Amino acid sequence: MAGSDSSAAEGADSSGPQILQLKEILRNELIAILDTIRGAKALVLDRDVSAALSAVVDFAVLREHGVAKMYVLDAGGAGEAEVQGVVYVVQTQVRKLRAVAAQVRAQGGREHSVQLVPRRTLLAERVLEEEGVLGSVALGEFRLDAVPLASDVVSLEQPGTFAALYADGDFGGIASVARGLMRIQGLWGVFPRLVGKGDYALALAQTLQRMRGEVGGGGALVASQAFDAAVLIDRAADVTTPLLTQLTYEGLLSETFGISDGAVAAGDGRRVGLSGDVYAAVRDASFEDVGGVLGALSRQLQRSYESRHAATTVQEIRSFVGRLGGLQTEHQALKAHVALAEALLRRTQADDFGALLDVEQTLVAGGALRGAQRAYIERVLALGDPHAHVPGVDASAHDASAPRSLHAALRVLCLCALWRGDAKALDAWRDEVVAAFGHHHAATLRSLERAGLLPRQPPPGGAAVRRALNLVAEGDDVGFAYAGYVPLAVRLLQVLAQDPAVSPASRYALLRPKAPAAGPGGGVRGGWAGWEDVLAQIPGALVDIAQVPADADARRLGAAAPATLVVFLGGCTSAEIAAVRRLSQLHAHRYIVATTEVLNGNALIDPLVQHR
User: Fold this and answer.
1) How confident is the model at residue 70 (pLDDT cuts 50, 70, 90)?
2) pTM for the full model?
3) Whole-number pLDDT of residue 400
4) Buried-most residue among 125, 252, 333, 522 (CB within 10 A)?
């Protein structure tokens, strides 16, 4: 994706919901919590919420409201601060609550406020009561459940949802996601329609309806004029995409170094922040286009510096001096991203990287693995290092070397199981995983199988879905993020928009006179009609629920709404977001992503890995 396109996509907000408004709301809620304690205070953060909080508010604002020091819960240290009170913002996990209780007992004479994320629970109250501190703290909740990461991306702050649902049978995340979506509906009105794919997508739709009924009390429904629908996509409907190697700039950063707290830790120990105009211009670009985008930015910066020679009047000189700080910041950002791009280039030019892509593309295209490809898989398993860096899971600095981790081996193994189903080879490779990484990973393999990532036989209908939806399409405008493979979520959005690019017009013959309109257009036009036979081959239920009366006014509002909310239950990748952004441009329609987390294949798998 061209850099200018990426920037334009993020800035094109005038015609739809102002998603960054969520940041202001969360900031004000946090400030109200801080202001309950007078004087200087310490803020102690759960490490797992610190990144989301940093996306909402900076330290300068916190300092204005009395925060003298910030600490990470695991590190302790708040007891040494000279403050009148301590505010804890933590998730409702027993281990973390006990750590809070230990610190509260050690800090007598202070005010303590414990804010639970995303909500206050009876379990949390019971743990604090058992620890003897419930009466000593002001207990509340901080609903960090819809955090804007960009003007078109919202994090629902539920990492590990896929494993929780499909391996652990823990359905609590569905209610938490629904509360985040209820916040969005509270701001912009009820989604006129809920459509989706997957069993837990259906459960989420039903939970949303129940919550809406509890809040609305049966009163009149206000249909959103900002969103035409919410498209709910259960990650289990497409586990292939996150297992593949992402080929956008941001995607490759995630695959090679890992992204944490909005930054990457490069091999030399530097942390490079992923924000600003330079990053917005390059993040969604296919990696083969990154050099051209950075080169264009460099030339533009050089012209801006040279403009000082044309400044002859005092006003012109003052104008240049006023821009100088911004130019220097942009120069440093450009230098940092050029260095990262060079590191990624070395990685992508390595023989093993090309071999990995060759295996992946052969599998998703339905081809048979050749001898050299099988040898590559066996080499990945044989050379595996149980202590290797895992990008996307391990946030430590690491160079751009070939992946040797268990996660890298498991991703290839899962793709083979999903698309080829060579039982004899798969059994041998399973044994090699256990031999290379330890016998306790027999439990890991069982967890992967239970979650549907490592089936004994490929899911039926996979080849038919690939052909019908044209998932492997060289030269397709939305296939750039995975070297010609189009994420299933993008194809589903094209189906809902009745996009002629996804299928011959004959698919919609039964819908005439509601055939696809000529020219670009997006959103939810005709639902799933005409595609039931293909979608039945994809795991999970079909969802299509009208939330407002299907009268003329509601239909008009839905058709005119400038945006569609695309909800990923179980996480999505940076490359999927880039592909959705490209579709926004092609359809001249805003698709706004709401996801339980932004992940790569390693992060998808990690909760299923048996750690000693």
Assistant:
1) very high
2) 0.91
3) 67
4) 252
pLDDT of 611 reads: 85
Predicted local confidence at residue 204, as pLDDT: 98
Angle, in degrees to the nearest 10, between helices 3-11 and 574-587 = 80
Dist CA 446 CA 453 (whole Å):
10
DSSP string, 182-228: HHHHHHH-B-SEEEEESHHHHHHHHHHHHHHHHHHTT----B-SSEE
Q: What whole-number distance in Å separates Cα of residue 261 and Cα of residue 273?
A: 9
Query: How far is residue 331's CA from residue 318's CA, in Å, rounded to a whole number?
Result: 20
Phi-psi region of 385 (alpha: psi -120 to 50; beta: other; left: phi over 0): beta
- The DSSP output letter for 511 is G
- The answer to whether residue 27 scores a pLDDT higher than 70 is yes
Residue-by-residue DSSP string for 344-392: HHHHHTSHHHHHHHHHHHHHHTTPPPPHHHHHHHHHHHHT--TT---TT
Distance, in Å, from the CA atom of 384 to the CA atom of 435, rounded to the nearest integer, reads: 10
Return the amino acid letter for 65: H
Q: Residue 251 in contact with residue 264, Cβ under 8 Å?
A: no
Dmax (CA) for the chain in angstroms is: 79
Report whether the peptide linkage leading into residue 118 is cis, meaning its omega lies within 30 degrees of zero.
yes
CB 522 within 8 A of CB 591: yes
CB neighbour class for 309 (10 Å; exposed up to 12, middle 13-18, buried from 19): exposed
Q: Give the DSSP per-residue string, 247-270.
A: -BHHHHHHHHT-EETTEEE-TTS-
Mean of all residue pLDDT scores within the chain: 88
Nearest-Å Rg of the Cα atoms of the chain is: 25
Strand 193-197 versus strand 542-546 pairing type: antiparallel
pLDDT digits (tens, 9 = 90+) for 370-421: 999 999 999 999 888 888 888 988 777 666 666 788 999 999 999 999 998 7
**φ, ψ for residue 181, nearest 5 deg:** -70, -30
DSSP states of 417-465: HHHT--HHHHHHHHHHHHHHH-TTHHHHHHHHHHTTSS-SSPPTTHHHH
In which region does residue 160 sit, left (phi positive, over 0), alpha (psi from -120 to 50) or beta (all else)?
Answer: left
Q: What six digits make up the tokens of 20?
A: 């960054």
Strand partners, 506: none
Q: How confident is the model at residue 257 (pLDDT cuts 50, 70, 90)?
A: very high
End-to-end CA distance of the chain: 42
Specify the amino acid at residue 519. G
Output the CA–CA distances (angstroms, integers) from residue 426 to 291, 378, 382, in the order listed. 39, 11, 14
Q: How many Å apart are CA 565 and CA 184, to the nearest integer?
A: 10
Cα distances from 460 to residues 419, 466, 606, in angstroms, run: 10, 12, 26
392/207 Cα distance (integer angstroms): 31
The confidence band for 517, taking pLDDT boundaries of 50, 70 and 90, is very low
Helices 287-306 and 249-256, interaxial angle, to 10°? 110
Answer yes or no: is pLDDT of 485 > 90. Answer: yes
